[in-house]
Fold each of these.
Amino acid sequence: MKPLEQIFPAERAARYREKGYWTGETFPALLRERAERFGDRTALVHRDTRISYARMAEAAQRFGAGLLAQGLKPGDRVLIQLGNTPEFFTAAFGLFAAGMIPVYALPAHRRTEIEHLLTRSEACGLIIPDKADGYDYRALAAELWDVVPGLKHVIVAGDPAETGFAAMAEIDGDPATLPEDPDPQSVAFLQISGGSTGLSKLIPRTHDDYIYTLRESARICGLTPDSVFLAVLPVGHNFTMSSPGTYGAFYAGATVVLGHSPVPDAAFPLIAKEGVTITALVPPLALLWLDAAERLKPEIPTLEVLQVGGAKFLSESARRVKPVLGCTLQQVFGMAEGLVNYTRLDDDEETIVTTQGRPISPDDEILVLDDAGTPVPDGTPGHLLTRGPYTINGYHDEPGANARSFENDHYRSGDIVIRRADGYLTVQGRAGDHINRAGEKISAEEVEDHLLAHPGVFDAVVVSIPDAHLGERICAFVKPRDGQTLKPVELRKFMRARQIAAFKIPDEIRFVDGFGITAVGKISRRQLRSQLRAEVLADEAAQQEQTA
């Protein structure tokens, strides 16, 4: 297996330790210590089940020991594709306890994404639900079993049926067999990046760097043992995990309530029932909650903070949060690669509604550069580059992406931002061919590749279009082959059959007779995407003028 590592330059690593950012904490120790300190206090609420810190820790340790008894070894990589259920945390913390490496996937991922993640991570195990939202994950695992040579263990949270896979509930072992805690600077887990091209890249995060973000996020977001965090976004997503998310709530000894649906009709009663104090949404859901709250007038007096992140939240919508929901808005702008920015709870209203916050750490170093790589003055848009005590220095096994994404010891995020003199950032959009649809980062190139696989498609170009609800929507321009007549519904059906996540299916499909070419006779896809995007925006502006 290719080794997992995330190496920080020695001078910076020494500085981060000296300043107390890295304290040598590890994830196995974190849960053990919380169980000792908070014992019978509620860690998790799921439907009518309440799980204490002590019970959560014991379940994780016994599961981790059970994995060792099954023949897995410390250092093995295991992909987790579970939704918002207690089993997610049993699996993740069980893997930590056993010295194994969780690889986080999303419930929406299908065969294309899961096969890629298993192969690229060299995972030997896969943990799935039996069924969720009408989808049978066991059938997916059965397909992967035959095509991923390294896959040796499939564990089902639920009923394995006739698959022969292991039932998660039956995996049990003696915690005395667990290994010693790992090196705090070793890789704790692999997250996924949206990627600017192709399928997701793998992001190695260390115990030291990630736990620092949990500690500081919990502090910045005002979490205490009396806080109640509602998770309605997928718990395998970095935002829901650490900003402050579920892991940040556990760090603070707070309670995590697992929501089965983010829609207002489900979430509002849950907030009232459990006394939720803080929750996190992406902008489309925040708009849905605001509209519903204006109609329903829900009684949710305990809600103190609504976080909105994953994509830019327009200021006009941001201004509605406090008067409509009666709570403080906290904007969050971050990335699984590291850098996280928050508006602070005591910021003035204008800062809260017009910026996406400032970094966690005093040692988050920010560069805002023009196209030539020259720093721009504050107040001027530019490319965001960053480094710091929790921003990675490289993807796993991605030399090409690393060459593109890391410059002079800084990570190039792909975002265009404006920095104020006080360090607050306002996000202007994406610099590359990368679509941020409702918080999911999608490669235009990947969507194009799926469209081009259709026998009736000669060429396809995919662009991002600003959208009031989604942040950005996916618009595909398709040139059919000569003599072919295509319909959008046909192409969407074809893409779904390729077993990709539903959020990658184009929202809009436009058919064209051809695309422009450069002076040397080749299509410059980046220029073409920019040109087509401008045409759509011009069309929409003209339509608005006609209806005004």
Amino acid sequence: MNPILPTPQPPAPEFQPRLLLVDDEPRLLSSLYELLRVQDSYQLVTATDGAEALAALNRQRFDLLLLDLRLPDMSGHEIMDFVNAREIDCDVIVMSGEAGIEAAIGALKRGAYDYLRKPYNPPELLKTVENALQKRRLAVENTRIAQRLENSEKMYRYLVDSSPDIIYTLNHEGCFTFVNDRAYQLLGYPREELIGRHYSVLVHDEDQERARYVFNERRVDERASRNVELRLKCNNSAAGDRTFNNTLMTISLNAIGMHVPGEQVAKHEFFGTYGVARDITDRKRAEEMISYQAYHDILTDLPNRILFKDRLGLAVIQAKRKLTELAVMFIDLDRFKLVNDTLGHVKGDELLQQAARRLKECLRKGDTLARHSGDEFTIVLPELRDRADAKAIADKFQEALQLPFDLDGHVVHISASIGIAVYPSDGDSIEELLRHADIAMYQVKAQGKNGHSFYHASMQDMSHQKIVLEQSLRKALENNELEMYYQPQVDMASGRIIGAEGLMRWNHPTRGLLSAGEFLPFAEENGLMLPISDWMIGALCRDLLLWNANGADNIRLSLNLSPQYLDRGDFFEKMRNALARYQISPSQIEVEITENICIRNPQYAIEQLNKLCQLGVSVAIDDFGTGYSSLSYLHRFPIHTIKIDQSFVKEIHDEHGHYPVILAIISIARGLGLHLVAEGVETEVQARYLAANGCATMQGYLYYRPIALTSFMEVLAVQNQAEAPSAALAPGPRLAQA
């Protein structure tokens, strides 16, 4: 009987989108119909009220619904609820003249693909429609591919199920009496060529003795079945030898004699052997691979830590014998964690693979590159002539890694921090060399990353200084050495200061004034962020009392919130109690969070931020566009403000230029009714470009640097005097750097 194979699928039909246009204003509906009619591939259906729309949705399938929210008989939201309740597969683009953010949020919460305000820009509408339909085209294609994969899987199962092992029988002389066609498929021997020939023609010469022992045994009891691994020859020499697991069983004929009353005689006569040979070549190769992987990193195919230490040990022995030097490098990829967190672990693994290939191309013959752990690599350079050789290779590494990485359309830039230890001056053991190279690498990290450094004994002292720094930071709270600085936020239309961002400073007793970037990352690593954040909330509230006493109660204070602090269970209670104790209005506080906070525990973060909003505190997304950028969380999270990161602002060099990322962020903020603040504004060109494109609030060195509380109060006093009635006719002061 012929096997039943999976039925081939016909080619997918051409995608012809059908659109339903719903608007109660005939003129606008007609205009929209004519705008889309020029697209020959669109099938257009119109409706002037909700009833017609629901009837059309019940009658036929639509790919896209262009929906006006305000209809005479029902709202667009009700139509979207109808679509969702009946699980109608149709994307929705909402077009509305309502100015309130509630309508947009309601539409987005109901799954709208996009929200356009009337009057809409025709090119923008066409682009939005095409993007929505393109998404559906991709979905159709994905469905088709999934079906093909399913058919392919069925075919694969059939092929596996219908591919038996080699089955054979031998007579009492060891000659083949039967063999199936699988012998030809695997070994290249036709069945007709094997029948009547001795099994030894297939057995590898080195396995002949073992085969002779197992095939010549004469067992007919429960021990008749046994297994043996043999290498069999292939008729095609290019294919090499293959290993088979042979299950052998002796076959016997029971000759039954004449029956004598009360007595029965049975004679066992050896007849031959029945066997099943299973190809285990792949298994043997897998065993070899397992042995290989025990000493190699699976992801990068580089030697792992075990093999690296073994080779380093051999290199040290040779260096001792030959009285030569060798170098050990410790490499850590800068910014890898950011890429891994924002793009995901799959892209992070791809980045590690590409980085490993680039590093390997820079090595000399005889050098060993290994993956130590995570994004760390180690290298041994044997037979070093002088340190210049190690420096030259480190320079090559940095040049190779600074080139952009393409991760499936995501262009990523990284660098490396490299520490170098030289034998025998920096140590004569494996542990010493690795530890000293690691210390040198962390020295590069502390100096701003993206460089290399040779180990020096003084670096041990610096490691000790880190411990001292931790102890000093713990005492800083007790000794009242921390202080809040404030960077004003300026309204471009009026020139007034309307807000300020609170930035922490440490008045170190010996090192002077330290910025937050110099000690807060260290505090996060050492579990000090929670007590420091507690101090910050109290300090900000005390400073706000002084603001308000001097007539600045209309100025909003922004504070940066550590993800560790948000994850703390009593964070909300601490914030609420502090505001109540100092009698600060919650509306005067804005909490800044980074986009990456959404990755840690998004549902918990939403709950905490919603509590803040119910209290009256607003929420801002800091460094927008540099982290886990997703439009979905803009309506899931209670966001009020978007802050454009200074890395995007820094790229503005021409006020008439085109900077699409900036424009996209401004458009998102405008479309969702969010407040917008540009950070890092340093030039007039940047300020004019941002203002011309709709960003009204700015923060940066062009206006003010972060300043201490007393200086900030003086600036506010000058602003208040300039706004006094007596100075109403006087020209306003120009904002100056402080």
